[in-house]
Known about the structure:
It contains 18 helices and 26 strands. The protein starts with a helix and ends with a helix. The model has no long low-confidence stretch (mean pLDDT about 95).
Amino acid sequence: MSLVDLLIRQARQQPECAAVFRGTALHATYGQWVARSAGLAQVMRQAGLEPGDRVLLFMHNHPRYLEVLWAAWWAGLVVVPVNAKLHSREVEWIIDDAQARWAFVTRDVAPEPLAGLAWQIDIESAEADALLAPVPDAWAVPVTPRELVDLAWLFYTSGTTGRPKGVMLTHRNLITMGLTYFVDVDPVASTDTIVYAAPMSHGAGLYAIPHVMAGARHVVPASGGVDPAELFALGRSIGPLSTFAAPTIVKRLVDYAQDNNLSPEQCARSFKTIVYGGAPMYLADIQHALRVMGPRFVQIYGQGETPMVATALARQHLADTTHPRYLEHLASVGVAQTPVQVRVTNEHGQDVALGEVGEVLVKGDSVMAGYWHNPQASALAIRDGWLFTGDVGCLDRDGFLTLKDRSKDLIISGGSNIYPREVEEALLTLSGVAEAAVVGAPDPEWGEVVVAFVVLEMDATVGQTELDQHCLAQIARFKRPKHYHFVDSLPKNNYGKVLKTALREAACLALTIHPA
């Protein structure tokens, strides 16, 4: 069995059912989708691509993304999804490392030929039209046999430290993720609609899998991205939407609903489920989101190395306001998802007591096969079947995991551990603070000092003294920032994660020029 069997199963059952939309315009039924993917798979095999060969997807969100994805799996190939915001030189490094032979691109991100490829196809060209022409009988196109242990998706990490690593995800990893969605995240029916506003190269695209399993509808916004007005209107027109979004996108949706005086009931006409993850969702933000939009939300925690599967904070957790530890649960990332085990350990790999902080470990069928051509990194990341995530957190007696930070983001000042997220949470409770990010910077006396970057709401007049006093009222004195920098925005990657490496560099530069 492989991922292509999921699409074939649905296309056989409901070939005339609407499957893929661009905005409100129908792009393909399930029958048309399977016919186009089968046709492209046939072309790729005839062109000499062999099972296990890598095909690059360097595209902005596009309906054909899904057709190419399943065509590659039909032909027994491995998909290499690439962040559309990468520089061409970074993409060419990935092409060389993955030894990718073909690439499907959108012209806006790849206007010139990329080095190292046998063939580069602009997905909106006449050439692509011909390649994706539907075959008269898709069932006559044989599926290249693949086993569950075979590679399906080669995902390159963001590479914030050194070169990115290729995360090897198998058919079993991704089918496990898809099945888990129904149990731990959200039930899906054939009448449901998933919208791809966040980049399809990452979590949003992976969630196509459970929605194919259910025979649901797939929508790429006409804009191809995140436009809150467009998404709310799209939901009202085509049916309540489900989507995966980073917290920054959630904030934009919530702000739009609030600015337009939409009630939770009105929000429900546009959105069924908003799954959030990929970056911290602060307690104040999720409380505000629930007030404005109602019970639309589910949080997941995972990594590229265990895609979308580690823990989940489900609707029932978010709605259980009578629980004596409700606020602690709300600030957590939920409980272990069904197919995995989660532990928290010390530096020796031994379990710590409940409530104590340590490294988060995950084990189960969602955990990657390893890093591409990097056995040393694989051996460090996976030991005795356990994925050492590099994330720091603690488990409570109810089984809820609360993340503190990435281990590399931990600040050690004067011998004391300081978790940036705790300081960020405190800063965000002050009226007038829109966003905050905290990093450590070298200090000759303390080893490191806490530096906060703060984005204020429009017309807010908060100053450093107010921030300092507020922190002193919320957290221990040694945790409060020693330096504050007011900025117009925080640097973020394509998925909404704050780039703390860039902030650490900025903090070091500021302290060099303006020492305390």
